[in-house]
Amino acid sequence: MTPLEDLFPPQIRCVFSNQPPQSLDLPPAEADATRNMRAKRLREFVHGRTCARLALARLGVPECPIPVGEHRAPAWPDGIVGSISHSGNHAAAVVAHESECQGLGVDLEDNESLDESLVQMVCRPEEIDRLGRAEDKLIIAKIIFSAKECVYKCIWPTVLHFIEFQEIEILLDTEARSFSALPSFSAASHRPDQKCARPICDDRRINHFGRLYFMIDGQFGRSTLADCEGLFATPPHSAL
Questions:
Q1: Please, what are the averages of pLDDT over each run of 10 residues along the chain (240 residues)?
Q2: Domain residue limits, the chain
Q3: pLDDT confidence of residue 7
Q4: What whole-number distance in Å separates Cα of residue 52 and Cα of residue 9?
């Protein structure tokens, strides 16, 4: 079992790999979306889809293509929720039955500082204030970026539209290695042309969507959106 797998409850299946596949062959339904991809992007895509098919197999789902769906999100088989991420030679996929989990989000990022020019786009003013003048503030900003990516992936099956970086606030507790995710918008503010299956927040917290997980260079984190609490873990780095 890999460190990432060890973070998940038994009803969720995941595959983590730092060994990119040698073959770039894909089912036709997936290959259609890769025709204009550069070699690096294609290898990452194949790596992510390979992890996803292995994760589905562990869930008991027969082998099937995972085409690119609406807004470039993976089109999972009926009754399945999942998430895919890749970064360099690393890739991961998590899947579950929709009856067990309403959403999943996973994100892999290199342990590098967030480009300073992106901080104001990614971080809300409150988040920037909390960064202060810390020496590692751009690394912390990268963690905030990664956590928000997880949130977006996790709630996508429910909201079915993009959420801006400024619409989610991440509260990090670096000493406890934990975080919370708070919505900074109202479901009532959505434009009429945006699809929304149900309200996506209560008075102040995201609710009942599922789980989100991320990794930054071997450091894995998780947050359960049901209670908006998170926990970091730092297991040894390992391969698939």
A1: 68 88 89 89 94 95 91 91 90 91 84 92 94 86 88 80 86 68 56 33 33 50 40 27
A2: 3-233
A3: 67
A4: 17
Tokens standing for residue 51: 């992890």
pLDDT of residue 102: 80
Cα separation, 93 vs 85, whole angstroms:
6
How far apart, in whole angstroms, are the C-alpha atoms of residue 19 and residue 3? 15
pTM, whole model, 2 decimals? Answer: 0.77
Whole-angstrom Cα distance, residue 220 to residue 160?
27
Distance from C-alpha of 216 to C-alpha of 85, rounded to nearest angstrom: 12
Buried b (16+ CB within 10 A) or exposed e, 73-97: bbebeeebbbbbbbbeebbbbbbbe
Question: Exposed, middle or buried, 192 (CB in 10 Å: 0-12/13-18/19+)?
Answer: exposed
Query: What is the torsional sign of CA 84, 67, 156, 144?
Result: positive
CB neighbourhood size of 116 (10 A): 10
Task: Give the three-state DSSP class for 80.
Answer: strand
